Structure prediction request, 180 residues.
Amino acid sequence: IGANTELRAAVYIGIEVEVGSGCLFYSGVRVLDRCKVGDNCTLQANTVVGSEGFGFAPKEDGTYAKVPHPGNVVIETNCDIGAMCAIDRATLGSTLIMKGCKLDNLIQVEHNVEIGEKTVIAAQTGIAGSTIIGANCLIGGQVGFAGHLKIADGTKIAAKAGISKHVKIPGTILQGIPAT
Prediction:
C-alpha cells in the first residue's frame, strides 16, 4: 500500500494486492487477491474489485461446472470507481481499467473486460465478459453490452442502449435497443 493512501472503515485488502500512493478507499471496499490499483485512485463505498466472474459450463447431466477465474483486475492510475460496483477478475490474464477512467455507481464489469483510457461510464451499466471498450468513450446510464465486443475509441452511447455488435468506426454515436 503506497504512501498517503487512506483506507476507511471495513476496507478489505486481499493476498498479494498492490495499491498505489494517494488513493482513497471508502468504507466497505473489497480488493481481492492479486489485484492491482494504481496511484491516485478513488473507490467509493462497497465496491468489490476481483470477485469471481459469472462462468458456468453446461455438463451432460444438465448441471453446470464452475469455470475457474484465476486472473486478476488491474486498475491503472487516476481512476474513480463509484459505489457498489462489481469488477470481476479475469479467467486468464487481467480485467483492465486503464488510466483516467471514471465509473459511476452500480456498474458491472465482467471478467476479461478492458476499458480504454479516459472512458466515462454512467450508472447501472453492465459490460459482459471479454468486451473491449476503446479510449475516450462516453457511455450513458443503463447501457448493456453483449460479450466479446470491440468498441472503437471515442464512441458515444446514449442511456439505456443495447450494444450487441462491434463498433468499428471511431467517434460513432449510438442509441436505442438494439443500438443504431
Q: What stands out?
A: The chain has a mean pLDDT of 97. The first strand starts at residue 6 and ends at 7. The chain is about 0% helix and 35% strand. The two ends are 44 Å apart (CA to CA).
